[in-house]
Write a structure and sequence with these properties.
Radius of gyration: 24 Å
CATH class of the largest domain: Alpha Beta
Distance between the termini: 51 Å
Helix content: 25-40%
Number of helices: 11
Order of helices and strands: EEHEHHEHEHEHHHEEEEHHEEHE
Strand content: 15-25%
């Protein structure tokens, strides 16, 4: 029997081209499987084969989405595959967005099945999860071994044109589609069973999950900046030289509190970034481009603001879980309140 033809998309890291320094690598196509494609091929058990792998830098794709998508779609079209797969991207934000975007572009242009894999907190899930199949994975490449069998199984079902089961059965994120089916137990029985489990503090799964919206009401505007105490908080990873708190370059488990009392400029050699999700060259040369101490000192001298808070707080946003970010924020907020801070400037990368 003729094998199903698969085209695989991966980023520069999994394509073994390089790390962040090669994030600007333009799209290229190679024959056969590369990197995780080798492990994915093993899941096909001879029923499908990766005929080509497309590699593109995360930075390049996200900065040139329209032209990159057009180029990649043509590369896929040349291979005339039966199915297209991207990633998995785990919790790498730019990679996830690229995987979701190119899957949608291929699906729309070539009308073939597509799928990818990501961690639940990857922004690509919110952006593309309703339009394409996205398999749920762990938050890092340590989950590759558990992700590939699920992706491989679903890919083969898509290639065969088989009916795709519910998200809880197949392992992909819910797309909000409801279908009728026959259940062995009537609804009242299932409801009572769930209630009993809930009362007994036992795990249960609702059949009608409700959306959860995290919204924060804005504070009133500051009426007089000239008396305000302004603090800086950043997810750009700015730390003293040597990263004394050992903040991780990705999936941070901590944040740092750093004194800038008497500091007018974050000079080169004394400050750097611990962030692993963007080119650190500019930030290492002048950390003020991420934490603008120099500009705020000028505003302080000119009387535009009352003062710059003597401490700033820093962590790495790259791949960091939302739950961790909320914990950091709660702790930082308490400290900022104790320091009588009027407002916070939150900087990114």
């Amino acid at each position: 029997m003729e094998k199903f033809k698969v085209v695989h998309y991966i980023n520069q890291f999994f394509g073994q081209i390089g790390g962040e320094e090669m994030a600007t690598h333009p799209p290229e196509k190679r024959s056969g499987p590369v990197g995780p494609g080798l492990g994915l091929t093993a899941q096909f058990k001879g029923e499908a084969e990766i005929v080509a792998t497309i590699i593109c830098g995360d930075g390049y794709y996200n900065e040139n989405m329209d032209s990159a998508a057009a180029a990649i779609v043509e590369m896929v079209r040349e291979e005339q595959p039966d199915v297209f797969v991207a990633g998995p991207a785990f919790n790498a934000g730019r990679y996830g967005v690229a995987c979701g975007a190119i899957c949608k572009a291929v699906k729309d242009a070539l009308q073939i099945p597509v799928l990818t894999g990501m961690y639940e907190e990857n922004p690509g899930v919110d952006m593309y999860g309703k339009e394409i199949y996205i398999v749920s994975t762990r938050d890092s490449a340590a989950g590759m071994r558990s992700a590939l069998p699920v992706i491989g199984k679903l890919l083969l079902k898509l290639a065969r044109g088989e009916r795709i089961g519910a998200s809880v059965e197949e392992g992909y994120f819910s797309q909000g589609i409801r279908v009728n089916f026959f259940e062995e137990k009537r609804g009242s029985t299932r409801a009572v069973e769930m209630l009993v489990k809930k009362l007994a503090d036992e795990p249960f799964v609702t059949e009608y999950p409700m959306p959860s919206f995290d919204r924060v009401d804005p504070m009133p505007a500051i009426k007089d900046l000239s008396t305000a105490n302004i603090a800086i908080v950043t997810s750009g990873g700015i730390v003293p030289h040597g990263n004394p708190d050992r903040i991780e370059s990705s999936s941070a488990s901590k944040y740092g509190e750093y004194s800038i009392e008497g500091v007018a400029d974050l000079v080169v050699g004394e400050w750097e970034t611990a962030h692993g999700g963007y080119d650190p060259t500019a930030a290492n040369h002048d950390a003020d481009c991420v934490v603008p101490v120099d500009v705020l000192r000028d505003m302080e001298q000119e009387g535009i603001i009352g003062k710059l808070n003597p401490y700033f707080y820093s962590t790495v946003g790259n791949g960091t879980a939302v739950a961790s970010s909320k914990q950091f924020a709660a702790e930082m907020a308490q400290k900022l309140i104790e320091q009588n801070v009027s407002a916070v400037i939150l900087t990114s990368t």
